[in-house]
Amino acid sequence: MPSRISDCLRANPVYIHHKQLDLNLVKGLPDSHAWTNLQDDYPSVYLCTVETVPVVDLDDKKVLDLVGHACKTWGVFQVRNHGISKILLDEIESTGKRLFSLPMHQKLKASRSPDGISGYGLARISSFFPKIMWSEGFTIIGSPVEHAHQLWPQDCTKFCDVIQEYEKEMKKLARKLILLILGSLGLTEEDVKWAGPEGAFEGGSAALQFNSYPVCPEPDRAMGLAAHTDSTILTILHQNNTSGLQVLRDGNGWVTVPPLPGALVVNIGDLLHILSNGLYPSVLHRVIVNRTQYRLSIAYLYGPQSTVKVSPLHKLIDQGHPPLYGTVTWSEYLGTKAKYFDKALSSIRIYAPLNGFGDTDDHKGVTAG
């Protein structure tokens, strides 16, 4: 059965005209990958900041309060005791390293078609920027078998088994996190019509995104993944032990999200920003690269069915808090993002922010780092 998110993305193609370069063989930074004025938009803050992204223990008795505070003040948090085994996290990381260590000619056999969704290639947001990002990616939507056969014609069983197990466990975790986030808003799954009769979000759609960031000869002039928000409900990210992910924090600039052993990064996407009527910000994030250390991340991007109508939840609306956004399906929103890019949320906003229910700054992008 075709994945619903694939139908959604095919309806809103993003054409990428940049050519994939084998970054592992490059000795100097090509002009095509040389970004300038990386700090023009926002000031840069690294590990020296006194504030760090919240870390939430899902077994904590105050988990609803902790999740709610993290969502409202940051739009991103790390989770411990999430139920995903270290063995599986190690396996998915090894799987990603095995994939990206293949020769370029082999990876290109599984390339994304010009208007395709799954496969090997550059990030979807690449088409919105004049320079190429210092990264390569591999997207899986639905069954991984077809592309896996292209990568490993003799035996792709191990690859497919790990992917399927990881997706199964991530789906469980995504549902758990959504219920916690709803609970932090004083809501239940019954307040979300598309949650399904059992409140299990059975109709949800997902994509798995592998991201590889090779060592870079001039990291101060390169960009791993440009600033963007995710067009999802939420994204769950596993990153290896190399720093690189940064989130924009009001008043602090760019704050690095340090890799914590066994922890996963959870960030709010645009659709949850809409559902919360702007209370929970869709976090702007990017990835910087490293001169000596390789970085790998695996993002699980979760959303509803492509045709589900998303709007501010009814119980969050009253006379003092009118709906800030109109109704939109995920498919329609991706189309808006493909057209307006960093103005997508603003383009569907009805009212200016009121009484603490506010839209964040205009956002950039449609993927995860």
UniProtKB/TrEMBL annotation:
- Domain Fe2OG dioxygenase, residue spans: 204-304
GO function terms (MF aspect): gibberellin 3-beta-dioxygenase activity; metal ion binding
Highest taxon of source: Eukaryota
EC number(s) reported in the record = 1.14.11.15
| InterPro entries membership | DIOX_N, IPNS-like_FE2OG_OXY, IPNS-like_sf, Iron_ascorbate_oxido_reductase, Oxoglu/Fe-dep_dioxygenase_dom
Sorted keywords for this record are:
Dioxygenase, Iron, Metal-binding, Oxidoreductase
Cofactor requirements of the protein: L-ascorbate
Pathway as given in its UniProt record: Plant hormone biosynthesis; gibberellin biosynthesis; Hormone biosynthesis
PROSITE patterns tied to this protein: FE2OG_OXY (PS51471)
One of the protein's GO biological processes: response to molecule of fungal origin
Q: Which family does it belong to?
A: Belongs to the iron/ascorbate-dependent oxidoreductase family. GA3OX subfamily.
- What this protein is called in its record is gibberellin 3beta-dioxygenase
Look up and give the organism this protein is from.
Cinchona calisaya
